[in-house]
Amino acid sequence: MSQLDESVPKIAIRADQIEVLEGPKEFYETLKQKIRTAKRRIYLSTLYIGKTEHELVATIHEALTNEPALKVSILTDALRGTREDPEPSCASLLASLIADFPDRVEVRMYHTPNLTGLRKRFIPRRINEGWGLQHIKLYGVDNEVILSGANLSSDYFTNRQDRYHVFSSKRVADHFSRIHHAVCSVSSLLQISGATSSPSHTLEWPQSNPSPSPLADPKGFIAAATSLLLPLSTASASPAQSHATPETSPRSSKSTTILYPLVSQPPTINTELPSLRTLLCSPNLQSYTFTAGYFNPHPLVTSTLLSLSSSPSPAQGTILTASPHANGFYNSPGVSGLLPAAYTHLSLRFLQAARRKSADIKLREWQRGTVGEKGGWTYHAKGVWATFPPAAAAAAASSSSLSDPPANVERNTEVAGPSATVIGSSNYTKRSYGLDLEVGALVVTDDEALMRKWRREEEGLREWTREVGEEELGKKGRRAGWRVRVAMWIVKVVGGAL
Questions:
Q1: What CA–CA distance (Å, rounded) separates 203 from 211?
Q2: Of 252, 263, 302, 389, which one has the fewest beta carbons inside 10 Å?
Q3: Catalytic residue, candidates 137, 180, 201, 298
Q4: pLDDT for 144-180, tens place per residue?
Q5: Does the annotation count 137 as an active-site position?
Q6: pTM higher than 0.85, yes or no?
Q7: Catalytic residue among 10, 32, 61, 135, which?
């Protein structure tokens, strides 16, 4: 992956420093366990923390009580974090932690620079979130960090399927901590007043912030945020000597595993999209699986998926996405209730384009019960698994260029599993790359044990899917009606994005 070595940070780690969690309950229990044993730092970047997550807050409170040196930094989105104010909200929930530990807990809320002036004044809550969010999901404790697409609320802990990778590496945890704190420094500070038992709260813009407020000076804010995040998004952020070899291990290993941190901070920084295309455009690619709960890929992602599955030596492609009955907006009131049908329409258009290009791509819908009914789950997983022949996988992990195939590579050779994955907060949409703040990682390995972990992860998601085609998606009851098409047009015209 020499192209990536020259453009984005590179961190060498051991394959046994990566743990792949299977589901929401394991994610929640793992997160709580790590918080309880925290000694030095906890940093949590998330869209929001559910307003009723008293157990999670109590777990953080317990850790702070037990460890006097522990400090906690929490980053959420300002719009989503205060959506329910003045009723109970994410902000009011976290105010209690600040009240009890004012010198050791800091809560920051990031506000998009895209929602200002008349838009800010007249667009109603919830809908206004269509103009950009703090969408990063990083859950760091001491020298470990969990990368995921999951937020911190009850459904993500019980019946909303996502992906979750635990990286037990100080280098990785430190790098993502620097990104977290850079965003915090250009975010509003949650301040409290009143009785500590029931404090009131406000969002203030500290004079010490290295940027103007996004509401007062959006252009100045973007410039300042870029100056902070760009050095953490480029190859210069990974010094050759300190990151060229993995941290020491009690056992020797001949395998190589590389993590490339990825950042999207519109409109100035986007290392994820070019890195994703670099991975997928390799002539050695044997097969790939692309998943997104909300399937609406950026046009460049769509064209890449279609072209690599219709080339003279096509890679077999699989798309995993949510069935309408597993879409988080299923039966939602108002305009948002039209979204499941809108995503069905987008899936149909993708399959039609694949047929025109004779692309070897299958689309599978994930469903586990029905949203809103007993035993019903939603699907929120996003990411990519890429499989290469063994020789190409070894070359990629050792930083040889994937665009130059090793001699005599047999594309159909059986392998232990995918040799690369992309994981993080992004849904790979125009919105992800044009409006939202996102962080993820591309991980490449030639370690067979890690490949098998990724294969089990992908197969675990496929277990709840079935293949759908154009005929089914075009049937009455699945076909998008005029109301859905009008809603999609309105969102596009006024500046939001699905």
A1: 16
A2: 252
A3: 137
A4: 999 999 999 999 999 999 999 999 999 999 999 999 9
A5: yes
A6: yes
A7: 135
